[in-house]
Specification:
CATH class of the largest domain in chain B: Mainly Alpha
Number of strands of chain B: 1
Distance between the termini of chain B: 25 Å
Structural class of chain B: mainly alpha
Shape of chain A: globular
CATH architecture of the largest domain in chain B: Orthogonal Bundle
CATH topology of the largest domain in chain A: MetI-like fold
Oligomer: heterotrimer
Chains: A mainly alpha (about 270), B mainly alpha (about 280), C alpha+beta (about 325)
Helix content of chain A: over 70%
Order of helices and strands of chain A: HHHEHHHHHHHHHHH
CATH superfamily of the largest domain in chain B: MetI-like
CATH topology of the largest domain in chain B: MetI-like fold
Number of helices of chain B: 12
Order of helices and strands of chain B: HEHHHHHHHHHHH
Strand content of chain B: under 5%
CATH class of the largest domain in chain A: Mainly Alpha
Largest interface: A-B, 107 and 108 residues
Number of helices of chain A: 14
Helix content of chain B: over 70%
CATH architecture of the largest domain in chain A: Orthogonal Bundle
Number of domains of chain A: 2
Distance between the termini of chain A: 20 Å
Largest sheet of chain B: none
């Protein structure tokens, strides 16, 4: 860092500090703490009501299934695509690399629409064939998994690619020269070296997958106790004037996502030491 | 959290050792990956575009220029632009404080910045309703107003500029600022002429991400803005309404509009990366 | 006196970087601060520049009290080891920076920039970005940038440290010639004694936060104040409890009064030199006693001769020799 003699004048430093803290407090910290407060306004009543509501428990279970499936899919394909992008050359590589970021900029509603157009049983490009094979995608769990995988797709890749690029492939070359084949090299050399990046990617994917709303809403049809995830149940409870349950479920989701980012931020410094 | 290793990514990739060419099994693997990517992302998105045009260009045009859609577009774009401008300023300030300042509780600030990114959007809406809705403890109620759109977008896009600028600020070499000082430049001049120009690419990248997220936002607005047509209805809500009314072509038309903007953002990001890499 | 430093002490936490250092640097001279890494020389330079503040002591530049002046007001030019180029500005804009800060007219600035680019032989690169220049070119640009504002003092912090050997030598000569032309008081920090001996008018040897000796290159080389200075400025070896230069040792193949007896244990021919490692023996009254000193007691002496001389004496591993310092040799 630049020498201590080159700091901005103290009032400026305090002004910036105050501005940043107040802004984040008013925008994020205070509103979030209020949700916590409302959830526990009657002690644990709201939470226990929510957790005994069959709509909610079904939604939570469904969310877990969908989110975990999406995370596993994105883990496998994410690591694989990262390796392809960093260690290999092929035509269209630059396009693929740019397109991988696409899900970050696309509206979730558009994602839902796109998947419905492709996979609906009546007119979908793939949907008609899948329907013939007895596989229902839209208004069913597979569709929700696809939607969730779509939106979280870039997250593992964006964590793993820079790490792979940074460490270079010398260790892998050394491994090959010592006689290891591609799978052994991957398992013993590559994977351990990207271990932490993969962990961050998975945790962030999980947070994103638990929280997906718009895309899943379109794809699932939002059918109560059949295709409602936790996020959808929050909306329907709130609009059904069951605010307590809505807040309680929202709290659970918020807690899960905050735990994810806390875990990541706690793990990161450890990796460097 | 690194939403935004994008600028660094290309430069680093250029330094990376060895790009192998594809052998048989790896080529097959590439094929599988590309196939899956197409089935999940490319083909469905392509279908959006084709469906939009399926009733002909005239119908497409009519849909996206219908008064309700236009007002949704205008609302969405204007608010997204305003929020992006806010983020450019506040994001830089926050990144500066996180990198250059030291005070108790700074680590907490760092984690809190990531909350809007990780939080489910519907929960974000509820969270903002708690403080800025009908039961606001401070008497501020923006529910069902255009201001609510601004507020929700500001919330969900908070981390973007911060996280693109932060790593660049951390990597800034100290001796450049010392050189400026030895040449007579005061702190403000050094910031304006030396530090800021080196931050511009990362600010731009964050701004692009912030804008893209802003125009596509849905979940946080559902409960907060009331979705009043021609008043507080954003484009994503418009698309959903078309879907619920069984009008996929019109939904696809509005969606295509948004996709075009999303693609423009990606191209812009790519261009920025390249320019930064050139500058070295 | 151009720069006067008085009783400067600097601590970084518990580490004492500079301990009560006082120094006068004459005007118009090229002075080197020489010493090992971590010895305090860069810290002293940065204190002169105002980039660090001393914990105690004073600094004055051209008679003006500068101890509490910020770097912006000291009118010193500073050149950094890694160039500190403003990456987003062209070479010309880099050089113009200090002038623009001082609000010189556009015409004035352009004239001065052209003048300086001419001086450092970078005129044809004026529109390039620093990333398009080589390391040596970037450092020349940094020098032009520092000189543009006509500083009272020019300070260079290991300016050639980041460059490879050949470029380093070239720029070393070039700096000397530049100084002869421009005559601004120059202080540069280096850990390379050859560089200091070649370029500087005066050398200040700094070690462990203290000044060991100040003098001209000849003075330092021929009259080192202590064994640190002697061993830092050139190769040394121990002979009979004294430090002496390996090429200042006379080698005899028969006993001599006052000579140390020994056996050649290693012989290396490098270019025109022959380097001997001689293990002294315990001798009684000058006669060869036949007992080679036990390994624990050894004080191996390094001797350097020309190849032809070594051949003349028919030296090889195992040869018995007698060593004594050359009559004109420097010893400590």
């Amino acid at each position: 860092m630049a020498s201590a003699r080159l700091r901005e004048p103290t009032p400026v430093r305090w002004g910036l500090r105050l501005l940043a803290v107040v802004y984040v407090f008013l925008l994020v910290l205070w509103p979030v703490s209020l949700v916590v407060k409302y959830t526990f306004a009657d002690g644990l009543t709201a939470l226990s009501t929510a957790l005994t509501d069959p709509d909610v428990t079904h939604a939570l279970r469904l969310t877990a299934v969908v989110a975990l499936s999406a995370v596993v899919i994105n883990l496998v394909f994410g690591v694989w695509i990262s390796i392809l992008l960093v260690r290999y050359e092929f035509p269209g590589k630059r396009a693929l690399s740019a397109l991988v970021d696409l899900p970050l900029s696309v509206s979730p509603v558009v994602v839902g629409l796109a998947l419905v157009l492709a996979y609906n049983p009546r007119t979908g490009l793939f949907g008609t064939h899948l329907d013939a094979a007895g596989i229902q995608v839209i208004f069913a769990t597979p569709g929700m998994v696809l939607a969730t995988a779509f939106v979280a797709l870039p997250l593992v890749i964006r964590e793993v690619v820079p790490v792979l690029a940074e460490i270079g492939d010398e260790q892998e070359q050394a491994s090959r020269s010592l006689g290891a084949n591609a799978v052994q090299t991957f398992r013993r050399i590559t994977l351990p070296s990207i271990k932490w990046a993969v962990v961050y990617g998975v945790v962030l994917s999980l947070a994103r997958s638990l929280g997906e709303f718009g895309a899943v809403k379109v794809v699932s049809g939002n059918i109560v106790r059949q295709t409602q995830t936790a996020t959808l149940v929050v909306e329907s409870k709130y609009q059904g004037f069951d605010q307590d349950t809505a807040y309680a479920t929202a709290f659970l989701l918020a807690a899960a996502s905050v735990i994810c980012i806390v875990v990541v931020s706690l793990l990161r410094p450890k990796e460097q030491s | 959290m690194t939403t935004t290793t994008v600028p660094a990514r290309t430069a680093r990739r250029r330094r990376a050792g060895g790009a192998g060419s594809l052998s048989g099994p790896t080529a097959l693997g590439l094929g599988v990956a590309v196939l899956w990517f197409s089935l999940l992302v490319l083909v469905p998105l392509g279908l959006v575009v084709t469906t939009a045009l399926s009733d002909g260009l005239a119908d497409f045009w009519e849909t996206i220029t219908s008064p309700q859609t236009l007002s949704a577009v205008e609302l969405t774009v204007v608010q997204a632009v305003l929020v992006t401008l806010l983020n450019v300023v506040m994001g830089t300030v926050i990144a500066w404080v996180l990198v250059r300042d030291r005070f108790p509780g700074k680590a907490v600030l760092d984690v809190v910045i990531d909350i809007p990114f990780a939080l489910p959007t519907i929960v974000a809406g509820l969270v903002l309703l708690a403080l800025y809705g009908p039961q606001s403890p401070i008497g501020v109620n923006v529910a069902n107003t255009r201001a609510s759109v601004f507020l929700a977008l500001a919330f969900v896009t908070l981390p973007f500029v911060v996280r693109t600028v932060q790593p660049v600020l951390e990597e800034l070499e100290a001796d450049v600022e010392e050189a400026a000082a030895s040449l007579g430049a005061g702190r403000l001049t050094t910031f304006r002429r030396i530090i800021l120009p080196s931050l511009v690419p990362s600010i731009a990248a964050g701004a692009a991400l912030s804008f893209a997220r802003g125009i596509s936002e849905y979940g946080s607005l559902v409960l907060l803005s009331g979705n009043l047509p021609n008043r507080t209805e954003v484009v994503s809500v418009r698309v959903l309404t078309y879907i619920e009314n069984g009008d996929p072509a019109s939904a696809a038309a509005a969606a295509t509009l948004m996709l075009v903007v999303a693609l423009a953002v990606i191209v812009a990001l790519d261009v920025i990366q390249r320019r930064v890499a050139r500058r070295g | 006196m151009s720069i006067q430093i008085n009783g400067v002490t600097k601590l970084f936490g518990d580490f004492v970087a500079l301990q009560d250092v006082s120094l006068d640097i004459p005007t118009g001279q090229l002075t080197a601060l020489l010493g090992p890494s971590g010895g305090g020389k860069s810290t002293l330079l940065r204190i002169i520049a105002g980039l660090e503040s001393a914990d105690s002591g004073t600094v004055s530049i051209e008679g003006n009290e500068a101890t509490h002046l910020p770097p912006q007001k000291r009118n010193v030019g500073f050149v950094f080891q890694h160039y500190a180029a403003f990456k987003h500005m062209s070479v010309a804009k880099n050089v113009a920076f200090g002038l623009e800060i001082r609000k010189r007219s556009k015409a004035d600035t352009k004239r001065r920039v052209d003048e300086l680019l001419e001086l450092v032989h970078l005129s044809q690169f004026s529109h390039r970005l620093p990333s398009q220049l080589s390391g040596g070119q970037r450092q020349r640009m940094a020098l032009a940038r520092a000189l543009a504002v006509e500083p009272t003092v020019l300070l260079l912090d290991e300016p050639f440290g980041a460059l490879d050997a050949k470029v380093r030598k070239e720029l070393r000569d070039w700096l000397r010639r530049l100084h002869d032309e421009v005559h601004v008081t120059t202080v540069f920090v280096t850990h390379d004694q050859e560089e200091a001996l070649e370029v500087a008018d005066e050398i200040v040897v700094i070690n462990d936060g203290r000044i060991e000796q100040v003098g001209s290159p000849d003075q330092l080389y021929d009259e080192p104040a202590n064994d640190f200075v002697m061993s830092f400025l050139g190769p040394v070896t121990h002979l009979d409890g004294r430090l002496v230069r390996p090429h200042d040792i006379d080698v005899f193949t028969s006993d001599r009064a006052g000579a140390v007896a020994g056996e050649v244990v290693r012989l290396l021919r490098v270019g025109f030199e022959t380097r001997l490692t001689v293990r002294p023996v315990s001798s009684i009254g000058g006669a060869y006693a036949g007992e080679v000193a036990a390994p624990g007691e050894e004080d191996e002496v390094t001797v350097v001769l020309t190849r032809s001389h070594a051949r003349e004496l028919a030296l090889d591993v195992g040869s018995k020799v007698w060593l004594s310092p050359n009559p004109g040799a420097t010893t400590v």
